[in-house]
Amino acid sequence: MKKWIASALVLAILIFGSVIAFNMLSAAKTKEFLANMPIPEFPVTTQKITTQDWTPHLSAIGFIEPIQGVTVANEVAGKIVKINFVSGQTLKTGDALVYLDSEVEKANLKASKGRLPAVQRNYQRMLSLFKKGSVSQGQVDEAEADLLTLQGQIEAYQATISQRVIRAPFDGIAGLRNVFMGEYLSAGTEIVRLEDVSRMQMRFTIPQNDLNKISIGQEMNIFVDAEADATFKGTISAIEPAVNYQSGVIQVQADIPNKDHKLRSGMFAKANIILTTLKDQIAVPESAINYTLYGETVYVISDQTSEAGKEFKQVTQKIVDLGKSIDGDIHVLSGLKEGDEIVTSGQVRLSNGSHVIITESDILIQPSDVPAL
Question: Are 355 and 41 spatial neighbours (Cβ–Cβ below 8 Å)?
Fold first, then answer.
């Protein structure tokens, strides 16, 4: 019995010893493998930093307005007897648009003009008799009052007749006609929209902190969705003298030439106010920027040599101070210098000190035609 127990104990010791020895050997081999395993190199695309001229701009949004625009309406009520324009017609200042019935006013005017010579002669006769002492000053004043009253009536009838001809107040393009022949118009009826589209304007707002960056006559680039491939040039023509105390913004107006009449009032527009060009600035693709909780960083590549004499490329994460972005590039205010080589794509798997290998890729090149959804 004792021999059996001793044999079992020896067998157990051998089994456990074998397991421990195997684990120790496995750990040693794993350590040796990891020690000799090459450091992974991640593929990235890069770009060398060069200085360039940088023209920053302020972005704004607003709506296009005509330099002059009005909805033409009648001042007095009446029935339409003639329409002298068509929808979409180009009009000149003073062109007659609509004639209202004015027969009654013309008849009253004719009657008043018929009485005018007699009233004038009566006034002259009274003056002559007053000089001879035959009439009093009161009679002369009464004759003069009759003459002035009649002249006032004539002018009133002429003004009323003139009001019954609705004319274009300025050069422009007529919109859609809203009235019809024979229609009775109440005073203030909207007849047609008239706009001068030879020159347009845009109103927008900017923060008060940017007020010192703009001035009268400053150039702007303006974009509208209806003309996606066109850039319209404009200049700042007016700046509101007061800042809105509730929102902290200030209104600005820009004039825009519209020779081809491509701009229409009411269009939504985006504008870039061109600021002073800065010399020898650094700009990098926005894809190179890593946005983190502790700031914006980029990976800078440097050449290194291992203890065994092998050359490799290593990245170092650097914090950068950024400015405005334009067309996919962003202005770097500090953190980089000319000649630095930075990672532009593939930095998702990188960390400080990672090894990289430079590859060619067209993934960041924008296609000329964007597929429709």
Answer: yes
**Residues 245 and 296 reside in one and the same domain:** no
Q: What tokens were used for 139?
A: 């009679």
Q: What would the two tokens of residue 320 be?
A: 């950068």
Question: pLDDT-based confidence at 373, cuts 50/70/90?
Answer: very low
Neighbours of 365 (CB within 10 A): 7
Among residues 243, 274, 305, the one where a domain terminates is 274
Kindly state whether residue 304 falls inside one of the protein's structural domains: yes
- First-to-last CA distance in the chain? 86
- Residue 13 in domain: no
Here the tokens at position 105 are: 């006013």
Q: Last residue of a domain, which of 257, 274, 291? A: 274
pLDDT digit string (tens) for 285-338? 888 889 888 889 999 988 888 777 788 888 889 999 988 888 788 989 888 888
The pLDDT value recorded for residue 238 is 93
> What average pLDDT does the segment 234-238 reach?
93
What is the helix (H) or strand (E) element at residue 334, kind and residue range?
strand 329-334
Pairing of strands 355-358, 41-48: parallel
Task: Please tell me the distance from the alpha carbon of residue 175 to that of residue 152, in angstroms, as a whole number.
Answer: 37
CB count within 10 Å of CB 64 equals: 22
Per-residue DSSP letter, 212 = G
Q: Which structural domain, as residue segments, surrounds residue 106?
A: 102-163
Which CATH number do you get for residue 335?
2.40.420.20
Q: How far is C-alpha 359 from the geometric centre of its chain's CA atoms?
A: 39
CATH number at residue 227: 2.40.30.170
Domain count, the chain: 3
pTM score, whole prediction = 0.64
Residues 257 and 319 in one domain: no
The closest of 251, 130, 137 to 201, measured between CA atoms, is 251
Q: Is residue 316 part of a domain?
A: yes
The 10s digit of each residue's pLDDT in 165-204 is: 999 999 999 999 999 999 999 999 999 999 998 899 999 9
